[in-house]
Amino acid sequence: MNLELKQVVIGLDNRKLFEPVCLTVSAGEVFSLMGPSGCGKSTLLSFVAGTLGEQFDASGDVLLNNQSLRAEPVENRRVGILFQDPLLFPHMTVVENLMFAASAGSLAEKRQQTLTSLADIGLEHCADFYPRQLSGGQAARVSLMRTLAAKPRALLLDEPFSKLDRETREHFRTLVFTTVARRNIPAILVTHDEDDVADRNRVLRLNN
Ligand SMILES: Nc1ncnc2c1ncn2[C@@H]1O[C@H](COP(=O)(O)OP(=O)(O)OP(=O)(O)O)[C@@H](O)[C@H]1O
């Protein structure tokens, strides 16, 4: 599974946000996207996810495994997104949040899968917690699991580490990188932090 952006140009109010973007992200790779505030990084992710607002003009194509997603509605794309703030339903427990996101299977199967994925990230003791009872790092990990429960074919990461303290950020970054490699899906990471890039992954710097 690879993710390809072909000659993507996004315009707003008759101006291009960035020069045409062409890139291919391989299965298991985290490709970073950097650039000054407002240059269009999050907008580019929305284009890939299929959630670009109508105020934007877009041309170019997104392909997943060589198949164009342009005509696919958001629910068919199976592209997962992780944001700065964990997106969890506040009135559901951790296990309920994860089961809600699970793509298929009986209730018992979903519960078992969920408990296994929580054990994988050392959070089985949080299964019955509500999101407000989680630390920032725990909520980030649950949010990642929630995104993955839908079995996405690609992952978009919009500054998911930026609100975490240094130590938590390092642990979570490692978890994200190893998870992407293990699931063998392509991922694009928007970040302002050079530490997220180091020399471990390729990076595109957008300018405006
Ligand atoms: N909903 C919106 N309506 C109108 N303009 C928008 C909207 N969202 C973003 N923009 C504009 O689109 C441009 C790109 O914004 P975007 O959020 O993609 O930048 P970014 O590179 O992700 O910024 P940051 O690093 O600060 O998150 C900016 O000029 C912004 O003002």
UniProtKB/TrEMBL annotation:
InterPro entries: AAA+_ATPase, ABC_SmlMolc_Importer, ABC_transporter-like_ATP-bd, P-loop_NTPase. Gene3D superfamilies: P-loop containing nucleotide triphosphate hydrolases. One of its GO terms (molecular function) is ATP binding. Residues 3-206 form the ABC transporter domain. It comes from the Bacteria. Keywords: ATP-binding, Nucleotide-binding, Transport. PANTHER family: SPERMIDINE/PUTRESCINE IMPORT ATP-BINDING PROTEIN POTA, SPERMIDINE_PUTRESCINE IMPORT ATP-BINDING PROTEIN POTA. This is ATP-binding cassette domain-containing protein.
